[in-house]
Each structure stands twice: as structure tokens, then as C-alpha cells.
């Protein structure tokens, strides 16, 4: 018991210091990247969670406790957004996702308002918040796990599982314990498990993230290139890769994976990953495929012979599985919708014919 009373502030203080260091590094080097800003918000929520036990629920500390408690429940929601942005190299998040996170963030604020104004604690709201925390945590862990095969950044690909076990597992454990354990200052089994989880999660995250080189941590913000330019002297493997993709259109195959590409080339998978990332400049395999798909789609949209072909048909023929991912990829690459692109191409052709 006495040991826990001594270790508790030491462990929490050390964890807070490491997360503050991570925040400082992200703010200094990656402040213009959305994934980094979401990571900062997630770290602040984790720090709020670590600070909650410091405050007892009395008149003097009621407001700081309420603020830290409200911020702490947002950890799973920020975690969910962070893994989507980082692992998939997304530069933006749709408004529906932001609306979902904002709606979830309103729940603890409503609880605070009820307690402050009516002195009434809503059990229903409390349960709803915990269910939301579980849902966000599981969704984030699934995103991190499912896309590991497509990740071309070796350090990040290996870190996916560690992040799932560290932050995702910590969120699930902490939420589960708090659903069946009255959080107070007394040392007990639940508190011991939380402290162990804090040590493990902080250690894994710190060791994993601090070993990244700055250039490979996040994708640069701004529009992505239509296709990475070839190296001055491309390797034979890179040349074969381009031939298989551009000439044979392997990207059209349904469910085409990096394992299938490696088998088609007769090369070890790690060498194919290294060529796509190191020589061709892509951070994940989906972006690599989409680069060739979008090249085909641009050509089709600008082709007067295909002006009556539905855009969805063109997208599906090029290998996109549905309209949503295609529209997002096209807007990210071109800054306009496929319909606008086709209209501009038609207007450009008309202008050229009038000049001629």
C-alpha cells in the first residue's frame, strides 16, 4: 500500500513528462500536419487522465476535476482520428467524423452541467460515454491492424502492433476497470493495474516514436503528386514495377495486394516495399495503386470518345471498389470533383478547336 502511494505520483509524473516532450516535438516539427495536431490533442487528453486522481471531488477541486475528467474521456476519440490520419497518410478528415467526435465530446459536458446545476449524476450518460470510449478504441485498433500490410514505412509498419497494444489496450483496460471500480485515492488492485498499464503504454509509445526519423514520421501536408517522379537511374526492379503497373495495368485486379505484386514479379515482398517507398516515393500501397488508377481515369475523363461513359464505370474499371474512396482520392489529387475535371477538359478541347 505504501509503495503504491509513493509510486503513483512518480509514475504519473514521469508519464506526463514524456507526453509533454512528445507534444513539444510535434508542435515544433510538425505543427502544420493535421495528424500531428490530433496527436497533440490525444496527448493532452492522456495527460488529463493522468491528472484526474490528483483532484478529490470536493468544493475546492470540483472544477479542475470536472475539466480533467471531461478531457480524459476524449482519449479514444482522438486515438481513432489519429490512426486514420497517420497510418493512412490522410491530410483531412470528413465533416461527419468531426461531427461524431464533437457529439461524443458533448456528453461529459452535459454531465458536468447536470451535476453543477441540479446536483444530479446521470448514470445513463455515464454508461453511454463508456460505450463510446470502447467503440472508438476498438475502431482505432482495427484501423491500425487492418492496414499494416499496405504500409510501406518499415518503422511505422512495425509500430502498428505496438501502438494497438499500448494506447488501444490501455484505453480498453482503463475503461473496463473504471466501469466496475469506483475511482478514488485508495490503493487497490484496479489502481495497481492502471499504474502498470501506464508504465507499459508510455514506454512502448516513447521508444517507438522517438526512434522515427523526422522525415518519415508524417506525410508532408499539401496536395500529393500525381505520381512520384522516377529516380535518375531507376533500379531494374523499379522499372519492372512500372511496367507491370502502367503497361499491364495490374492495379485493376480486385483485391490486388503487395503480396500478389511481389509474387507476380518473383521478388521478396520486402524488396518490393523498399522499391515502392524508397525509389518511387509512396508511403502506403493504396496510394501507390491509386496513383496509377488516377492516371487512367484522368486520361478517360479527357477523352472525347468516352464523354458519355459514366464516371462510376470509369472508376470501377480502373480498380476503385466504390464511388466514395474514388471521389476522395480524386479530390485530394486534383482539388476538384471528377465532373468538374471532365468539364474543364471538354472546355479546353473546345478552346483549342476554336483557336485552330
TrEMBL record:
Pfam families: HTH_18 (PF12833). Gene3D superfamilies: Homeodomain-like. Residues 239-344 form the HTH araC/xylS-type domain. GO terms for molecular function: DNA-binding transcription factor activity; sequence-specific DNA binding. The keyword NADP does not apply. The chain crosses the membrane at residues 6-27, 34-57, 63-87, 99-121, 127-145, 157-177, 189-210. InterPro entries: Homeodomain-like_sf, HTH_AraC, HTH_AraC-typ_CS. PANTHER family: ARAC-FAMILY TRANSCRIPTIONAL REGULATOR. This is AraC family transcriptional regulator. It comes from Sphingopyxis bauzanensis.
